[in-house]
Fold this protein.
Amino acid sequence: MKSKKLEIDQVASFLRDGMTIMYGGFMGNGTPPRLIQAILDSGVKDLTVIGDDAAFSDATKGPEGIGLLIRNKRVKKLITGHIGLNKEAQRQMLAGEMEIELCPIGTIAERIRAGGSGLGGVLTPTGVGTSVGDVEQPLTFNGQQLNRKPVLNINGRDYLLELPLKADLAVLEAMRSDKYGNLVYYISMRNHNPLMALAAETVIVETHQIVEVGCIDPDHVMTPGVLVDYIVYPA
Amino acid sequence: MSEQMSAKEFIARRIALELNDGDVVNLGIGLPTLVANYLPPGVTLLLQSETGFLGIGPVPEKITPIGQPRVVNAGGAPCSIIPGGSTFDTSISFALMRGGHLDACVLGGLQVDENADLANWMVPGKNVPGMGGAMDLAVGAKKVIVAMEHTNKGEKKILKKCNLPLTAKGRVSTLVTEMALFRFHGGKLVLEEYAPGVSVEDIRANTEATFVVSENLKEMEISRTGL
């Protein structure tokens, strides 16, 4: 079988300006640090990145995660649920230097899952009656807004239609991988990683441990290796 | 020498009495997190973390350095997972909230109005941290308890209609401040309890929303744990 092993200096060959990248992680935990560094080192820019949050700008509080690319002005657009602990992301948003689409975290997760599952979207009660129902480019006539996300009433309850998310590349962090890419995560580091494995054209995993095929009990596999294209082994 | 209990502690101690043994609960960051410190004897909660597990345990004695695999809560702060806990991805984590599998959530608030609407995630042009998990929690938990100080330096926060961007419409069940406890019954805001030394007139003077005074109005009891 063809090896999925990828050297860290080969990551650049998968990158190009303007591409869309999903990154695993929740407050930087589960975001692959060496892969984010490799993206920075490659020099790519104008990225659209999709992930839970913008992690920490204060490195004494927690991992910087995707913040490394934000701080170095590589991100054109960020689709995320929370930037409250990344002051630089907030500054760039308020200054209009980076476009931000804020989306409830549960909705992001389901949009990614939909993107990776062949679904045309999801219907969620989250955000009904709030600004989440607005579209990115509102069109008004005499002060009345003409375009909003569709709301469907199903069995008496309103739901927002949220569209799927897909990406060119997903960068994930696993606790353990076998050489086929069957993955095991560690508690709160799992988060969006398994969902993103479904939703990107190319999936690269950085793992803390690498084991031979057959060493992980099939019932313990959290992401099936068939979804993983490349594995960056432990340093 | 006497010491004044902080408003935050008073609120957290009142909310601690709202939760039942065995409840599956999500406590928001900040004031809501304090509630766990004041649970009465015999009440054990199963706490959910948005990061993807059930069974939040105490901060570990030895904290794993940043950058190494570690367990964190929704604020990214180190914590632990209790025996019998379970882990899952974000889709399941938020399905637990949105799907009505949490007995209660406790959220902070910027404004609450008489339609049970909540605003707690942004102040336009000033602070735009993002809604994180707040909208999913507010829309899905069986009971939505809001913990907030009654006013902001004299500015009213319990309004006829929220003027800050909403987190969720019509979803607040219970509102606890350092002056009062309100519940929503049949779409009406009802004052059920007042803090010691606070009159209904005081509450009215600090509240813009129209409310009904309960027939069973009483003084707030708080958890005495640790006092």
